[in-house]
Amino acid sequence: MQEPMHIKELSIDIGGRHLAAVDFGGRSDDRIVLAVHGWMDNAASFMELAPRLARCRVIALDLAGHGRSDWRDESSWYAIWDYVMDLHSVVQALGVEEIHLLGHSLGAGVLSLLAAVLPEQVRSLVMLEGLGPLVIEPEDAPEQMIKGLAWNRGDRSVPVVYTDRERMVLARIRGRFPVSREAAQHLLSRSIKSVAGGYGWTHDPKLMAPSLIRLSSAQVEAFFSRIRVPVLACLTDGGIATADSRRRLSRIEGVQVVNLRGGHHPHLESESIGPVAEAINAFYRRVDQKRLSREVLV
Fold first, then answer.
1. N or C: at which end does the chain have fewer Cβ atoms within 10 angstroms?
2. What CATH topology corresponds to 8-136+214-297?
């Protein structure tokens, strides 16, 4: 049986910008887990998973431009390294000595970079349906930038106004990564706002823009090779993993890969949430045991 949780909203200020978060609560001695969602999702992505994680205080963030967090200013973009900067600021703002990272899709990509460069505070990394940032081959970089600039100077479409919230539920169910109605309703709890004439999305339309540039495979592998904390990668048979991206994981020393049945949101779907939670709880127990062993040896 899941324990009752005392959920509260957090507002984290980073350089004058507001990032919203959901604190799922816990005991004073619980591990602190920073959970980060995927592209176009939000903190509600962890509403099903957080209550199932034992001895964890989960703090789930709305990334900039998503959910209830502030958008970036008009002159800024949504590059992955900017998300890394944001999350580094969030970790410092939380004022914790150590933190565990849990990311889905885009969130897993961002947190994999943070884990590589913040070894003094990060204690573990869980990647749900994420194998690092999207990559590009060096010879394709000019064309990628051309696409981004073309989007930036193009005509911006007028945001759609919905008179019926049910249409928004259906739009989310049938999105790029389809989800169940229950999962869609979780996500829409933080992604709908009232506007003149009805309802609109809370996310920044600029999230749809192509990246101006991406890291190369070699660069991502260089980050992966620097990760020294325990890492769990949960991948599904209906998800986004490819043979190439799976091979990239081998650059993470000692990474544990768990293959599950399900789609791209296994942590939100009733058919797959159980195995996901079991895998993560077992992983955290091993992390604790490894730490205790080190302390005994010292």
1. N
2. Rossmann fold (3.40.50)
